[in-house]
Specification:
The protein is of the alpha/beta class. It is built from 24 helices and 22 strands.
Length: 662
């Protein structure tokens, strides 16, 4: 007995071939010339007996699949079973690509099978051939299919039609449901079907505890079967006599609803389950014209598109949330009776599918999350780069291969830092500038652009902090001017200077070092916090304007860091602080992930409490104000610095509110 198989290296094909190898006979596989190595590697990986195969070079897009005349003569009359599995199973593929593979490919395969005088043509169709038929679709139904506007549904329907109209050879048609991984190993070769929602489930797991009830979606029944069931069923039915001219639904007789399926995978992935599920069909009462008009609004379209991109869900998948079709499979059940082949329950193997996806196919596994991958050969400008957070960050990006530009006022310290990083192999350049002087900012911008052409990442790290109560600032209005001049206007001048080249190149990243005080509204830091809040507000406004032009903004609400800036306040020597290296780690995270904001949980909690219970938060801040007096430095009394020893109460409070400025 001889077999001929197209799509032998495909997902279903390789499992079917594995079954055929347990039978007697030679297996002829149609392989493109450039896929020969892939087939040989697959043979070795799966431990197949290479002597059982005859490789037939060809191409599904060519007449008679590109099989030569000599090969046709050699095989004519010898092939008893011709299995056609080669096709595109991808909702996101273009119409032309699907038409070429699914329709033209099937036509060429039929012509080849007829030329070979094959005993039976076994066509792997899909339940997609039914389109979006509302109701129960039987195995003997075909022309009744509805809702075939989608390219995948239409091409699978039309390719099956070619087989049904075939009169030259006998045929059998198999319509598998949505095929997922192996029920015993979970193995699958690509993301499809329910896998598209795994990234969303993983994000829910990362954000919420598994016990938290969630609001979810409900819809139609989604028919899912594992690949081993499909391959076993096809193999068994193909070798059973007197079934020619029949169609077989390889489907689950008891399919689950969308919400139930998603909850199974939520459970498998240890994510919170959807306790309350809204049936998507309830929105059908809204007239299509209104739904279409709302969906066509640019903000709605862009927001939905952004969510789908972030969760890696193709837009075409959403129409199947309300899938209306059920499948009668009595022909397949009759053919499989007594074989022991049946559809396993999804709940019994869902965890295997999840485990395999998370270990092998999770898109996050293939993202370069190294600093080197993000900054190598890119121009990174870091202000305040001669010490503290700026220096620690510069050392990291220089080591990762960036063209590192450090900026500071003090030349000796700046050049010493540059030379040390150069000795370590970094491409480092140093420029002195007083960023409180707007003219000097403009000079710096022009010099950097002249010598480096553009800036990929700007880190606004240089800043001035003043810890002084408002009552001590009545005659020190210049405190507010100085902090605003450097922290806001200086940073803004650099952003506005480098932004034109960024927007022209449609890529750039601005990282602004803000303060946790902007979220916590720390007393005694009104001058400092106000200047940082101004930069924070500018960034939020700019994001809305420039995100569509490839420009990213990240605000880091930095907690207290042990740098020279806090040295005048001796009390900070006894409270918890980050080291400059730890703070640089937050900047590395910002460069790699490009989030809109990085802050601590305490910062988020403080902002939340202030928004929900502002009076209660005011009491906490007032208590802290009274507990932590003005420093001797803020009073101008240098002689009293040695007496600033914090009390146990102060240390305990600072430890509880770790990282907040007091």
């Amino acid at each position: 007995m001889a077999y001929f198989v197209t799509g032998a290296t495909g997902f279903i094909g390789r499992h079917l071939v594995g079954n055929l190898l347990r039978r007697k006979g030679t297996i002829h596989v149609l392989i493109r010339k450039d896929s020969r190595r892939k087939f040989d590697a697959l043979t070795r990986e799966l431990g197949w007996d290479a002597k059982r195969f005859v490789v037939v070079e060809g191409d599904m897009t060519a007449e008679r699949c590109g099989v030569s005349t000599a090969q046709l003569r050699a095989l004519k009359g010898k092939v008893k079973h011709f299995f056609h599995l080669a096709a595109i199973y991808d909702l996101a593929a273009s119409l032309d690509a699907q038409r070429t593979a699914n329709i033209d490919g099937t036509r060429h395969a039929l012509d080849l099978a007829a030329a070979l005088e094959a005993g039976c043509f076994h066509h792997t169709s899909s339940i997609a051939a039914a389109g979006l038929y509302p109701g129960i679709f039987r195995e003997d139904m075909y022309a009744e299919a509805e809702g075939l506007d989608d390219p995948y549904l239409r091409t699978k329907h039309e390719s099956e039609g070619l087989v049904r109209r075939e009169t030259r050879i006998k045929w059998r048609i198999y319509r598998p449901a949505m095929v997922v991984g192996h029920s015993k190993t979970g193995a699958i070769d690509k993301i499809d079907g329910p896998y598209y929602f795994f990234t969303l489930i993983k994000k829910l797991r990362d954000v919420f505890p598994p016990w938290m009830p969630m609001l979810g979606v409900e819809g139609g029944r989604i028919n899912i079967v594992p690949v081993d069931f499909v391959a076993d069923a096809m193999d068994h039915i193909a070798h059973k006599p007197r079934l020619d001219g029949h169609t077989f639904h390889l489907t689950d007789p008891e399919p689950l609803r969308v919400g139930e399926v998603l909850n199974l995978f939520c459970r498998a992935g240890h994510a919170p389950e959807m306790t309350m599920r809204l049936d998507a069909r309830m929105f059908a009462f809204v007239p299509p014209s209104i739904r279409g008009a709302v969906g066509a609004l640019p903000p709605v379209r862009r927001f939905v598109g952004m969510l789908l991109r972030d969760f890696r869900i193709p837009k075409q998948v959403m129409k199947f949330i309300t899938y209306p079709t059920r499948f009668d499979n009595r022909e397949a059940e009759r053919a499989l009776r007594g074989s022991g082949i049946e559809v396993p329950k999804l709940e019994d193997y869902a965890w295997r599918l999840w485990d395999y996806w998370e270990r092998h196919l999770d898109p996050d596994l293939f993202i370069d999350r190294t600093l080197k991958g993000k900054v190598r050969n890119k121009v990174v400008v870091i202000t305040g780069g001669s010490s503290g957070i700026g220096l620690a960050t510069a050392q990291r990006v220089a080591e990762a291969g960036a063209v590192t530009v450090i900026v500071a006022r003090r030349e000796e310290e700046l050049f010493a830092a540059r030379d040390a990083m150069r000795e370590a192999g970094g491409k480092v350049f140093a420029y002195t500038a007083d960023l409180a002087d707007l003219a000097d900012c403009d000079r710096l911008v022009q010099q950097v652009l002249d010598e480096h052409g553009h800036v990929d990442i700007l880190v606004n790290n240089a800043g001035r902090s003043i810890r002084r109560s408002i009552e001590l600032s009545y005659d020190r209005f210049h405190d507010f001017e100085r902090t605003m001049q450097l922290n806001y206007f200086g940073s803004l001048r650099l952003i506005m200077g480098f932004m034109p080249s960024m927007t022209k190149r449609r890529k750039g990243h601005i990282i602004n070092i803000s303060s946790i005080g902007v979220l916590a509204n720390s007393p005694r830091f009104s001058a400092y916090v106000a200047s940082k809040a101004a930069l924070d507000a500018f960034s939020r406004c700019a994001q809305g304007e420039l995100s569509g032009k490839g420009i990213s903004f990240t605000t880091i609400n930095m907690p207290l860091v042990a740098t020279p800036m806090i040295a005048p306040t001796k009390m900070y020597d006894s409270v918890p602080t980050l080291t400059p290296d730890e703070a640089a780690g937050l900047l590395v995270k910002a460069i790699i992930e490009k989030p809109s904001r990085i802050t601590t949980r305490l910062g988020v909690f403080a902002a939340l409490v202030n928004a929900v219970a502002p009076k209660a938060y005011e009491i906490v801040m007032s208590t802290a104000f009274e507990l932590f007096p003005d420093s001797a430095a803020s009073k101008g009394d240098r002689s009293a610095l040695r007496d600033e020893t914090p009390s146990q109460e102060q240390i305990a409070f600072a430890a509880m509110m770790r990282g907040v400025h007091w």
